[in-house]
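Late entry, written up from scratch paper. The run itself happened at the end of the previous shift, but nothing got recorded in the book at the time, so transcribing now.
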Amino acid sequence: MTLTIAVANAKGGVAKTTTSLSLGAALIEQGQEVLLVDMDPHANLTISLGIRPEGLETTLADVLLRDRPLQAVRRPTSVDGLALVPSNHELSIAEGHLMVREHYLLLMREAIRGSNKHDVIILDCPPTLGILTQNALTAADLLVIPTQPEYYSAHALRDMLNLILTIRNRHNPRLRYRILLTMLDNRNRIHRSLAKQIRTAFREAAFESEIEVDTRLRESPIFGLPIQQYAPQSRAAEQYRQLASELRQYTNEFHRSHSTAA
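Output as recorded:
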């Protein structure tokens, strides 16, 4: 059974795309088949894999607007076992037309139901709470919320939690979430203090794994590679491996719960 993970936060610059790509590559190292879906019109995930958005003939917009199967739009990447459904500026146009479609918040869920060739599907969301992010949360089994230990990022969690409640009540009662601390600088007293407060507030809803500041993470998209290929011995690569291992434990629980339900 495929596990669908949405990576989202209403605030930009908190390492959503970095987490989507790095987590996907870490899961590949652990023997998983992974599909990344770029749900951001800015196409940063697509660019991070060395693909030029402006030259694409088919993208996620074809899935959401024209009912193309997800597998018909997916494309291989330079990383074995890691496939991508890309995005470009057309997705921003698509977002404006989605509301006229019947059950428009269920489009991503239906597309994923027709795609079972991957162990994990990761949805990289835009930094908004709009239709695209709502589609992702309606389709997801798990929401990962990357969060910097900074005031504005922590404050934005309130909006995310409100959206989670709305999605649970209306479309996806099984949606679960986990907080992931990112861009953490342990030399910074404020970072340490806010990280502690977030962990105290969210307890088991926060991953034990955390992602510290690492310049290699900023460099890797320039070369179109995830951190595991660009700098495999780096601190960030190892921390995303730890996150993948922690997520595998969640995956096992997910499969057990669904087997019981069946």
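The mean pLDDT is 92.
(Scratch paper discarded after transcription.)
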